[in-house]
Amino acid sequence: MSPNPPRVREPILNLPATISLCLAVLIGIHGVRLLLSDETDFTIVIDGAVIPARWAVAFGGVQVEEIMRSLGEGVPDDTVTPMMALAQYVLASDEGRPWTALTYAFLHGSWAHVLINSVWLAAFGTPIVRRCGAGRFFVLSAAAAVCGAIVYAVMNPFQVLPMIGASGAVSGLMAAASWFMFAPASWHREGRLTQPHERPRETLGHMVRNRQVLIFLGIWFAANYIFAFVQPLGMMDASIAWEAHIGGFLAGLLIFPLLDPLPARPSRISA
Questions:
Q1: Which parts of the chain have pLDDT scores under 50?
Q2: Taking the C-alpha atoms of 152, 158, 159 and 162 in order, what is their torsion angle to the nearest 10 degrees?
């Protein structure tokens, strides 16, 4: 037997199959859309995106005339702006299309958009899948996407531009991971230190006293503020739906303890 056994090559990206599938779907959908005609792609985006004005008319009791009037403020009566034309097209039917609260997460505006979301999905979705399994991962992601869509629509009821992207779902995964990613390491029964996804969930009391958690949350909120209100020149090719990020983040923060299969860290250490 050779004293120097051959080295086993470790994969560069050791991702769970569930995450690899999600990345393939997101990137694949965007790649296929690039092969379609502009008209077909436009139809796909309009049919699958969250458009708050469409929900406001279908579910909120808002009249189409109200939206058209708000878009025409300061515009001559005989003028139809591109935004007004889009509103007329989007609101031509009375369909609310509630399923778009999920389908918008599969569409992206550019390669930069889908790749950035894919990187964050891989980073924060991986520990969630390893801790909770594929089923609970999908439940959490869907809930965060839906809550992100609802918060965005509520805060922008007359918006007729389509909102797309997986950022709301990814924000929910980030919030969920914050419950355990920064928890103190302990010894596993196998005689090794626990991985982050194996650690007991922090309590709220522990989280507010954990400097790493507070720094992470501070950076996350600061980044959303910068890209939403400051928008550094040339860094992004479209406006950021920060409302969807906040909605998804809060959903992940509130829902994860209900889905977590591991117990929370004891609030006190018994003697």
A1: 1-2, 5-12, 232-237, 269-271
A2: 80
